[in-house]
Structure prediction request, 489 residues.
Amino acid sequence: MNPLIQKFIEPVVSRSAQACPFLIQKIALEKMLPQVFAAEIEEGDLDCLEGRYLKVLVKDLNIGWSITLRNSLVEVERADGDADVTISGDAREFALLVSRQEDPDTLFFQRRLTIEGDTELGLEVKNILDALDHENLPFPLKQLLESVSQVSRFIYAT
Amino acid sequence: MELVCPAGSLPALRVAVDSGADAVYMGFKDDTNARHFAGLNFNDRKARQALDYAIDRKVKVFVAINTYAQPKGWKRWQEAVDRAYDLGVNALIVADMGVLEYTCNKYPDLALHLSVQGSATNHEALKFYHQNFGIRRAVLPRVLSLAQVKLAAEKSPVDLEVFGFGSLCIMAEGRCYLSSYVTDESPNTCGACSPAKAVRWEETDLGRESRLNDVLIDRYQEGENAGYPTLCKGRFKVDDHVYNALEEPTSLNTIRLIPELSAAGIKAIKLEGRQRSPAYVEQIVRVWREALDTYAVERDNFTPRGEWLDSLSKVSEGTQTTLGAYSRPWQ
Ligand code: SF4
Prediction:
């Protein structure tokens, strides 16, 4: 880890994430997620989320969302209600997970990630994330993922 | 020795192939394989893409149909075999004698490997499977010591594959009913030990608790590494002592034994973990590829590099690696 850079970057990310109104987060996520998971939604792989809530909590940034599918449309809500399964951890862990630099089970064994609630739903979402074909993502999203990967490699390199 | 690597998804398969696998093994999306978890494994389209990717790069593909066919679902097992044959895979990994017989009668030219779940521990058992079903390879259970592996290899009529790395499930492969005891489902019958629907994790004041069908399996304190919530790896109170009464959550790592396994005539090393992510697959395959290549050059002077062991133990269950039963002299 690179503590110095982290010290500078984290508060910036944290403050901008918190300052970004929920409505904007909601609009951004509801636009992005259906693109990322287009094939999975189409093939019914994500039917497990129909009417059920997955809560994602980024603890150190103090932000979170409840995500569900309604008639195959992604809906993002505030994370203050109940959810069927809750996955929580710090921003670093999520960045490493999404950019495939760390294995989710490892993060879980080391207790850097927590899954509470319906384990089967959590596992299914994890497996779908693992199976996601990054090659097939629309170009801007591939770029975004690449940047997350580079930034997290830079900040969190061990 | 051939390096046989796990693939639970297409991205995992691609990184296994790109990181140096000689063969990859995968399963279909149902209970015909022993990693039957929601969201994991291959439907027809993904299986086709997987085959094309691997074959283009001269990497073999094995399909695990290694659970025990249940009377109600026999058709599913037959269809899985048919589908694998139509895909043109290099071999099937099978445990159940009914499935073995179906395959060797219908597709005599399709290579059969006896799954670890078949639990063949000596050369007489291997001979039986060879004579009756024409198996070409067998995966030895992880309950054997190195001396026992050598003994089996000496007289085995078929090629042998052993586990090189991964989570341990060593109680009695192919015969373990601990999971059934608590959840009514076990790897052999339903393709999953501790099915996720029976698992609950909870952060409490006493620590992270794992429950299997409401039975408390373990409670991890701050800073303690957790393991998979299987009954065998839980901590239980026996005579006022709370400890891992059956098995500790560790991972097997036999990099050190490469020279001995090779000398014993073992033909393939299997890495465990179809349930794990592409990140895990990439890390373990890369290390094992390098280790086997290094051994091919150094031979007698082979010593495992510290950094290999470090990166393997980082992704291990319980972050502890052992030689497992291979090192048990008393066996
Ligand atoms: S309970 Fe343990 S030994 Fe038995 S099948 Fe599950 S992991 Fe293997």
About this structure: The first strand of chain B starts at residue 2 and ends at 6. The interface with chain A takes residues 8-12, 37-40, 43, 46, 195-197, 199-203, 208, 220, 224-227, 275-280, 282-283, 314-319 of chain B (CB under 8 Å). Residues B 169, 171, 176, 178-179, 187, 193, 230-232 surround iron/sulfur cluster (CB under 6 Å).
